[in-house]
Amino acid sequence: MRLILLGPPGAGKGTQAARLVEKHAIVQLSTGDMLRAAVAAGTPVGLKAKAVMDAGGLVSDEIVIGIIRDRIAQADAAKGFILDGFPRTVAQAEALESLLDGENLKLNAVIELKVDQSALVQRIVKRAQEAKAAGQPVRKDDDPEIFKTRLEAYNRDTAAVTPFYAARGQLSAVDGMQPIAEVAAGIDAILAR
Ligand code: ADP
What we know:
56% of the residues lie in helices and 12% in strands. It is α/β, with parallel strands linked by helices. The chain has one domain (2-191): P-loop containing nucleotide triphosphate hydrolases (Rossmann fold, 3-Layer(aba) Sandwich), CATH 3.40.50. The two termini are 13 Å apart. Adenosine-5'-diphosphate is lined by residues 9, 13, 30-32, 35, 52-53, 56-59, 64, 85-86, 88, 92, 141, 150.
């Protein structure tokens, strides 16, 4: 199974992706996680990406497309994958399309988590508080001001990815404001079609 989860930062993509990975024995390819790992390891990609990520901006298409190209080619991705946080621009969506076409691979679904953006800042504040209470590191970009920059980047560059897939008849949507279990049920119903 190969699927894409779309939606603004804080929509719940990561939560749903983690569950789908268990259920379908596929790998989660989160460009955010991969970039944070590159930053932590101090690789050349990480060094380039760090400042942009901390400020809530988007890392260059060239970098993230390269990361995804390499990752999809690895053996564990052959059984299927779920993309979370990629594609974030139309250029990334086009690059992915030609990558998959070249391998004769099809996407099973592209699912948009639809959320009310005014509720997202609260969600992110809660996520930061919970991480802190659990003794986990708080992401630098989970700060309310930086989060607003991330939402702006989403609305400016990423919102156009949804119509890209709608135009190809590949897009489904789930109400991401519902409780986690109901969002999960909505996704499962789409995947069962
Ligand atoms: P979110 O919680 O917003 O879904 P992620 O963990 O996916 O955040 O990403 C964190 C940061 O990593 C983004 O704000 C951006 O700087 C960078 N990033 C992740 N994926 C991409 C991408 N596909 N294109 C550009 N930048 C990306």
